[in-house]
Amino acid sequence: MTASASSMARTPVADALTAEAPVAHIRICGWVRTRRDAKGFSFLEINDGSCLANIQCIVDEALPDFAVIKDVNTGAAVDMRGELVESPGKGQKWEVRAAALTLLGGADAEAYPLQKKRHSDEFLRTIAHLRARTNKFGAAFRIRSEAAYAIHEFFRERGFFHVHTPILTGSDCEGAGEMFRVTTLPASGTGVPPSGNRFEADFFGKECNLTVSGQLEAEALAMGLGKVYTFGPTFRAENSNPARHAAEFWMIEPEFAFADLNDDMELAEAMTRTVVTRVLERCAADIELFDRFVDNGLIERLRTIAGQSFARVSYREAIELLKTCGKTFDYPVSFGLDLQTEHERYLAEEHFGKPVIVYDYPKSIKAFYMRLNDDNETVAAMDVLVPRIGELIGGSQREERLDVLEARIREMGQNPDDYWWYLDLRRFGSVPHAGFGLGFERLLMLLTGIANIRDVVPFPRTPGNLEF
């Protein structure tokens, strides 16, 4: 049979394995995990990525095209037609008895780097173009897909509009300065105008960077649409290699009008618990894989997150808890200092034993757009801290008062003129509003127990790594 000879619809392995009755005519396409030869037969384990499990296909030597079996090695792609029948073997309900076999793409048995053994994560990062074929990474990327779908479902059910904000920006939302510059100017520096302003000759006529956040634009859209959220790539040029940071990552950023900090905390908790619940329900086999081989206790922890209300504590109270807990930390704890991962994890894992929301942070360690509290010392900001990860979500009630916002921008050493349009939102019909940012990859680390962000991103971008 040629590759184009069959017009029969392909059946995903996931559907074949959950069939309720035998199927007389079925077509399975996928990649061979293993081939085992016996007298008069060959047994193929085939996986097409639709689920964790493989399906066994039995190829009889009486088939006219049986001779091709010698080239069907691990890694080869095949197209098989046959009959779905009950399997006499243990651990599987169904198997396929082949009626025709086509080799779509061979794989050199000696050169194919994925064999039937456990490979280290470090090795698999060097062959990221193939690691989706492994059990671990196939499961991780299916969970990634399901989590993204659950997020869209959550916001749609609550009347939020999905909006698209720019990837290229002329402002620094966070004020951290760790941004990737984008330019069309030659690296040699030629073309600089007489004024000496290099960016006048650039594509946009001003300095341009990859965005670290779509928040400011989302706020503008929320001032007309009421409730919006973004879900897109963001970038940070932080030249470090911690396990939780990547140069390119995806952010979910809801913004909603007529809302305060309490509304923000409620939304963040509901979203986290809903997504965890749906992934537990829809990716049970994949989650079980991670619970068994990556992070024992994962399922119990996720069920706790889904089933219990989050703790809430003010920043000031959190500092006192950390000071008096009797634990020695690597980083000092005092009012005015940001919480480090070790502090966040202590609160979520040891003190509360579940996610905790810390709110009302000192203004000195937070961004200009966060609403100043009446004490003139703290802002209406909150972080959601979860076990094993630390900070999962950061958000705040936004500053809606024009004079206060202008003063805060100046305090941060920035020019209010650069934010003229953002300030206009406070000049023309300003309202209380709030929002937060969720790092999607950190959510995936929570859902899978994977400890390194490089292993929840199909093709990670980190300092010194731009492969694939």
Question: What this model shows, in words?
Answer:
The chain has 468 residues and is an alpha+beta fold. Helices cover 29% and strands 24% of the residues. The chain has 12 helices and 15 strands. The chain has helices at 13-17, 121-125, 135-157, 215-225, 261-282, 284-293, 298-307, 315-324, 341-351, 402-411, 420-427, 440-448; strands spanning 23-38, 41-47, 55-60, 77-86, 94-105, 161-162, 168-169, 209-210, 227-235, 248-257, 311-314, 356-362, 378-386, 390-397, 433-439. A hairpin with a 7-residue loop joins strand 2 and strand 3. Helix 3 (135-157) crosses helix 5 (261-282) and helix 3 packs across helix 12 (440-448). The longest helix is centred in the N-terminal third of the chain and has 23 residues, at 135-157. The radius of gyration is 27 Å and the shape is elongated. The two termini are 35 Å apart.
